[in-house]
Amino acid sequence: MTSSGPTYSHRRRNSAERITRSLEGASSTPFWLDTPDRPGAEPALVGKTTADLLVVGGGYSGLWTALIAKEADHSRDVVLIEGQEVGWAASGRNGGFFEASLTHGEDNGERHFADELPELRRLADENFDEFVATLDRLGIDAEFEYTGSLTVATELHQVDALREVSGDAVFLDREAVQALVHSPVFLAGQRETHGTALVHPAKLAWGLKRACIELGVRVFEHTPATSVKRSADGVAVTTRAGRIEAGAVALATNGFPSLLKRTELLTIPVYDYVLMTEPLSAEQLESIGWADRFGIADSSREFHYSRRTADDRILYGGFDAVYHRGGRIRREYDQRRETFETLADHFFTTYPQLDVRFTHAWGGMIDMCSRLSAFQGTALGGRVAYSAGFTGLGVGATRFGAKVMLDLLSGRSTELTRLKMVRSKPIPIPPEPIANPAIQIVRKAVAKSDANEGRDGLLLKVMDRFGVGFDS
Length: 472
Description:
This protein is globular. It is α/β, with parallel strands linked by helices. The longest helix has 22 residues, at 117-138. A hairpin with a 5-residue loop joins strand 14 and strand 15. 32% of the residues lie in helices and 22% in strands.
């Protein structure tokens, strides 16, 4: 293993033989979905139907919208349609990190919503507590663990930033962080216990689906929406084999092509990739000392995230954030050998004492917007609401976005609809053919920043000044 350059880059530190051997036979199915307990799909919609509220999209955002609406008014006829199966996309493929933040972290919140940040912190805590209470009340077994998080420095220039703690966070020097996790590349850490938990992503989605159905929400899967437009009685949404006339519509399609022209340039689909190890033995766990079940992230712009699962595997993902020309979303993009090899190399750099194989290697699309935190709005005379742009932190924030959509559809002025975060929109992302070369230039600038001891170049400084962000 070589040691020149930054800790993590595209330059290999481990042998090709070790990397290749570790990935042999890895399943392309996301680990969370690879189970015989996966529920069957609900029938597709064929023909016409009506609804008081139609929810388009069966990920977290849509599921929370349908659930909250139905619980608030059991007489309300709520229909949810999903283009494939509930939880098949980002909601069933993510790392399972549930963070309270609604603003993609404190720094990003300060950048965009400084005047209302105290209010957003309070709302974030309330949303976190209500989320957990709902799981308990409805008996949703999402393998919820209130674990907190550990942010680590893997470069000397990152150490001082971690010393700036707030709230209940604690700075850990090298000796202290090594006592928690034995990795030669961890130079310091910041341990935080407030507002961060772990879940099983797919079980959360499936549990929300079950709760919706039990409450009387009509769920149709394999029912992609193809258009939305005004009708005589409200809004008409057409599907591949049917049509729904609804009084109101909530669009929870996130990174998929928008049904509304006004939001087409507000998000882009970016692919993220993940590895999952085989279960670690007691001896292997002892060798890394990772006894507490907190999640870990490093401090680079191109960062990694990792966590332990209930059966003592390690999930390891991040670093690459891949945009495909034209903003295309294709099944073949879920696999990217180059990224898997990079992640395997970084894993063994982090834990050289582990000789393990990866049983699963997968990727998937997340929706990214220029301000890195979600946005909401209305269309078609207030009959349609939308929520998108969660940028990888949607496990908890989607519930809040669902509440915002329902408040917007009510037509009332509420605490949520008056927020600047709700009233404002992110800066649009330029269309193709400009988007792809621009994004690739920004990606190179982000990588250069990490290689240059965290010092941003002119491009990233200008983007930051105008409130535009891009991380891995």
